[in-house]
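Journal club side-thread
Mid-discussion, someone asked how the predicted structure for our own chain would compare to the paper's figures. Pasting it here so we can look after the session.
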Amino acid sequence: MMKMAMSPAAAGLIRALFARSGIAREAVLLTDYRSTEWHSLTFAGERHEIGFRVPGPEAADTVAKPLDGIDEAEFSISGQIVADIAVEHPPSENADGSISLGIEALTIAS
């Protein structure tokens, strides 16, 4: 298994997404990850693009619950504030019945 190198903010965001969803980490595949530095005049942070794939016959139900209201959700990430989060690539069914989706977020150091 290949491990992707990621920042503490990205790792915290992924842990927070799993905690919010109640989905076991083993039930979801991380298929894509990219994080880039982000700066404004007063803040510093990172923009994250994360792709997930949920296998199994109940994948659609598994995905629906955590995505409901995600853009208004509060996340607890040490040293970070989730300033913006959205489903950038809505859930889509793959040929094998799994569901793929993409999330984008902006975290700001607190």
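Post-session note: The two ends are 33 Å apart (CA to CA).
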